[in-house]
Amino acid sequence: MKTDTTLTEKFNKLFQDGMLVFVHVGKWEMTQAVDQEKDLGLKAEDVPDFIMPGKKKLFPDEIRLQFSRIEQRGRTYLRDNSLKFPIVDAHFVPHRKLVEVYDGLTKIKEEYDKAVVAFLANYEKYKAEMLAAHHDNRASLEDCYPPVDLIKDRFRFEINMCEIAFPRKLKAVSIVQVRAQNLAVEKMQAKFEAAQEAHHREMNETAEKFVKAACMDLRSQVVATFQTIADKIANKEVVTKTNVKSLREIIEQFSSLDFYGDAEVQAKLLEAKALVKNDVVYKDDAAAVAKLNEIVGSVLTVARNVSDVDAVTGEYFRRINLNPV
């Protein structure tokens, strides 16, 4: 049985156009499990405000939650500047946007690291303030604070990039393995190759579904933004500078994330880009509004048409298959 080497092509070649980016964040939650007998042997009105369901907060929320807020900003930034990939927490970023995204995440990482340094430097001060604020429950809190040296390694903000590829050749199956399983060499090899083929087919289906989903998602973002403008024009509302700015932003966003080449939508967006310049004012210019309405309608017509999505994604894979990995 001969393994079809073309089975790996779609998935491998997808990573000629971008990489997967992951953000991994670690933090100390600054809480401690509640001791049911020691902490909750109280009347409801006497439960101190540092106790929440099942846990005690060891610091005020403005200190405790700052790391989660920075983390969320990082994840939101990555989500907004990438295409969601069907692997947990993975985001596909086209090469043309990779440096921009990495630099943006690095700034957020630097903010996170700076907050960690400040927190650790002020750890004992924050602890003393918390104990003073809850003097009546000091005994319930004081033993909950670990030494600062034990918590500093819990904080991290990591930015990782990778591509996924599968081996072009089968790994040899040792005779020891064959004998151990009491199988003939031929049968073992056939079984292994069949499993590899099935896995490669699954990965290529994943690549196809991802590109199709990316195409649909980017088009839907364009539709949402342009439809807002179409509605304003239809309702005879003023098209503001903020509205025009949103059009320019979605056009740039589409251009930076469209690694697969959605040519027809790109062409219409370029027409719109030429029209919505910084110096155009639509407030009292009926002719300008009419032109804008025409191009907005043209973009919406093309972006809403999903009948060509299979053709767009199919052409992308035909194109990259002409180039060796």
Mind explaining what this structure looks like?
By secondary structure, this protein is of the alpha+beta class. Residues 1-8, 35-45 and 166-185 have low confidence and may be disordered. The chain has helices spanning 9-14, 36-39, 61-64, 66-80, 95-121, 123-133, 138-142, 175-180, 185-234, 241-257, 263-275, 286-304, 309-320; strands at 18-26, 31-33, 51-52, 55-57, 83-84, 91-94, 156-162. A hairpin with a 2-residue loop joins strand 3 (51-52) and strand 4 (55-57). The strands form two sheets. The chain has a four-stranded antiparallel β-sheet, sandwiched between helices. The chain has a three-stranded antiparallel β-sheet with strand order 2-4-3, with no helix packed on it. It has 13 helices and seven strands. 58% of the residues lie in helices and 9% in strands.
- Total count of strands: 7
Helix count equals 13
Query: How far apart are the termini?
Result: 24 Å
- Weakly predicted, low-confidence segments: 1-8, 35-45, 166-185
How much of the residues is beta strand, in percent?
Answer: 5-15%
Q: Helical residue percent?
A: 55-70%
Order of helices and strands: HEEHEEHHEEHHHEHHHHHH
- Which structural class is indicated by helix and strand composition? alpha+beta
How many whole angstroms does the radius of gyration measure? 28 Å
The outline comes out as flat
Q: Identify the strand order in the major beta sheet.
A: 5-6-1-7
Q: What is the makeup of the main sheet?
A: 4 strands, antiparallel
